[in-house]
C-alpha cells in the first residue's frame, strides 16, 4: 500500500536552508537605536576621569530622567546588560555619580535602585 509518500522520519527534511532563515530584530532595539541623549556640559565636567561604564550608565540615567519627565525611576539591569554593563558595574557607577553630586539614589536590598533625583545645573538643586 504505497501512496507515493515516504512516511519515514528523516531529520534532514526538517532542517531549514540558511538562506531561508532571517534574524528578527526586536522592536525595542529598533526604537532604541533611533534615540539620543542630551549630555549637559556641567555633567561632562563632573564626569571627567570616570570609567567608560560609568559614562554609559550616566547617559542611560539622563535618558531615563527625560523619559520619566523628571520623576523617580527604577534602574533595572536589562537594557544596561545590552550595553555590557554588569549589575556590579551599574552599582559602582551609581555610587560614583552620587559621590560626584549628580544624582540621589534609593538603595534597596535585592531590588533595582531607584534614582530619586537628577541634578542638572546647580548641583544639589533639582531642575
Low-confidence stretches: none
CATH class of the domain at 38-118 reads: Mainly Alpha
Instruction: Tell me what the CATH architecture of the domain at 38-118 is.
Output: Orthogonal Bundle
CATH topology of the domain at 38-118: Arc Repressor Mutant, subunit A
Helix fraction, binned, reads 25-40%
> What does the oligomeric state look like here?
single chain
Distance between the termini: 82 Å
Q: What portion of the residues fall into strands of 2 or more residues?
A: 5-15%
CATH superfamily of the domain at 38-118: Winged helix-like DNA-binding domain superfamily/Winged helix DNA-binding domain
What is the strand tally?
3
* SS field, number of helical segments: 5
Coarse morphology:
elongated
Biggest sheet: strands side by side, in what order? 1-3-2
Largest sheet: 3 strands, antiparallel
Average per-residue pLDDT, rounded, comes to 85
Structural class: mainly alpha
Keywords for this entry:
single chain; 127 residues; mainly alpha; Arc Repressor Mutant, subunit A; 9% strand; elongated
Amino acid at each position: 500500500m504505497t501512496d507515493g509518500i515516504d512516511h519515514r522520519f528523516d531529520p534532514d527534511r526538517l532542517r531549514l536552508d540558511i538562506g531561508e532563515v532571517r534574524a528578527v530584530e526586536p522592536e525595542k532595539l529598533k526604537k532604541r537605536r533611533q534615540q539620543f541623549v542630551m549630555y549637559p556640559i556641567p555633567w561632562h565636567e563632573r564626569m571627567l576621569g570616570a570609567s567608560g561604564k560609568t559614562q554609559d550608565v550616566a547617559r542611560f540615567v539622563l535618558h531615563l530622567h527625560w523619559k520619566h519627565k523628571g520623576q523617580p525611576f527604577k534602574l533595572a539591569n536589562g537594557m544596561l546588560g545590552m550595553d555590557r554593563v554588569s549589575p556590579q558595574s551599574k552599582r559602582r557607577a551609581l555610587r560614583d555619580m552620587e559621590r560626584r553630586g549628580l544624582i540621589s539614589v534609593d538603595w534597596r536590598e535585592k531590588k533595582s535602585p531607584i534614582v530619586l533625583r537628577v541634578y542638572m545645573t546647580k548641583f544639589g538643586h533639582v531642575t
